[in-house]
Amino acid sequence: MLFRLWTRKRSAPPENDAPVDRQEPQMFRPRIGLALGGGAARGWAHIGVLRTLESAGIVPDVVAGTSIGALVGGAWAAGRLDVLEEWARAVTRGHVLGLMDFRIVGSGLINGGRLAKLLQRNFGDVQIEELETSFAAIATEMRSGHEIWLTHGRLIDAIRASYALPGIFSPVKIAGRWLMDGALINPIPVSAARALGARVVIAVNLNADVFGRGTVIQAHGLETEPVEEIPDPRRDGNGGVFRLRKRFRNDVVGAGQGPGGIASVMVDAFNITQDRIARSRLAGDPPDVMISPRLSSVGLFDFHRAEEAIRLGAEAAERALAELADTVAALR
Fold this sequence. Notes:
Layout: H1 2-7, E1 32-36, H2 45-55, E2 62-66, H3 68-77, H4 81-90, H5 93-99, E3 108-110, H6 113-123, E4 134-141, E5 147-150, H7 155-162, E6 167-169, E7 172-174, E8 177-181, H8 190-195, E9 200-204, H9 208-211, H10 240-253, H11 262-284, E10 289-291, H12 306-331
Parallel strand pairs: 1-2, 1-9, 2-4, 3-6, 9-10
Antiparallel strand pairs: 4-5, 4-8, 7-8
Helix pairs in contact: 2-12, 3-4, 3-7
């Protein structure tokens, strides 16, 4: 039934020259838009959402994505979602670290060249304007803070700009503008999906289950703890270089207990800010249907847990199908 609801655009023509007043009323499907939010490794849940929508016969006419949402949404719009899903399910911790070309100097801890080559291999020189689906990747212009909707040009350039997390990835220059992560200004791009012509907008919020409602904790005291001295690997004659390299990796990504490495702390702080911005923007321009996968168990750098994230995304989309059907029925 759902398949017929979403694929049937109009009724069959009248038979035997039936009078106009006896014809079956025409039925039109409203233009569907999908707004895919940012959330680092939790973004694999978008794959599960798209798979569930496809199984129900729901094919979006418009896709707007921010950060990891731009990557997954762009892959779907370009017909490369199978390739991305296969790669994501095969990723291990070692693969993730292998793609992180760390550097000491520059505008980001990760150069991003290795990821760019991977995208080039899988997407080639696909142009956004050639896609059958209307697509926009959301980015933020440095210095001016302008919200940039990338709707033309090379798809991989738009995706890279949209996920260029400040301090982690280097900004990307497109048409004379230096661009970085769109989640700084529009974490869940409902407004872009509407502007591209969607009448019904489905939004996917990757952080709803992570940050919850947010609150204020008053009069919270801290217990003092002894400061742990970090050994200097330069003074260790046995494997000093290896220890230094391992120490650098742990400082950047993080390992074990504690607040995490530089990258973990930066991304976590960024996602908290993103969550507050998303709530504000969604209050002013709410989606017609919100899909909120329960992803609190998936860490920001857990790219190796794609299978779990995809399953959680699929489950969340399944829960939303009835509401989605009611919304469309009301707009016909």
